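Example record

Each entry pairs one chain with its bound ligand, adenosine-5'-diphosphate.
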Amino acid sequence: MSITDVIERARNEGRTVLTEVESKRILEDAGVPVTAARLAPTADAAVQAAEELGYPVVLKVVSPDVTHKSDAGGVRLGLASGEAVRDAYDGIKESVKRREPEARIDGVSVQRMAPPGIEVIVGVSLDPQFGPVLMFGLGGVLVEVLKDVAFRIVPIEPRDARQMVREIKGFPLLEGVRGQDAADLAALEELLLKVSAFVEAHPEVAELDLNPVFAYKDGAVAVDARIVLA
Ligand code: ADP
Ligand code: MG
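Structure tokens for the complex follow.
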């Protein structure tokens, strides 16, 4: 399904928030590295998707009404067998129904479990004056507590991407501390450039969140994605 198809379907359903599956589909087309996610409407479909993708996998709730999937009990990580997938499918449905009884549940998404990396976040939001603004920061607690982020107006150039990655206070973490692997800075810069180009080409995108992106010694991958349409 192309980006125009995805957007049209969302609009027809009166939705502005794209699901993780839809968002990743579009971003994959745009050359942004993501853990591609498949929609599984039943437990059987989830097992089949897992068999095809290869274990271990991650299951997440797919619902237009759930923004924070883990808060709703809608994320299960590191599933290594069909039985684990089946249990996780039932568990997710049960938790989400309990915590958000009004939410429509379309099923679950199935994706490969990505190896752990340094968590960073990439975002885009619309500034009324400047238009789309790109944000880069360290993920998790650091970004919430320290607001340690870098901003640039879209579109960015390679020089901007280089600076964004380097100007956050947490940059030493990306360079590798205490024997930890350094992050692949070139891959992060490339990802920022791809996101910028994507947003520039699609003015209908009002908001974009890649939270988190796992940064590795070699490469980087977004394990969660959310696009909001204008
Ligand atoms: P939400 O932000 O809606 O709660 P996420 O998709 O971000 O849900 O998942 C929650 C957490 O689970 C992530 O922050 C990440 O640490 C982990 N996670 C999600 N998807 C994967 C994956 N494919 N591989 C490894 N870890 C993942
Ligand atoms: Mg997330």
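The mean pLDDT is 95.
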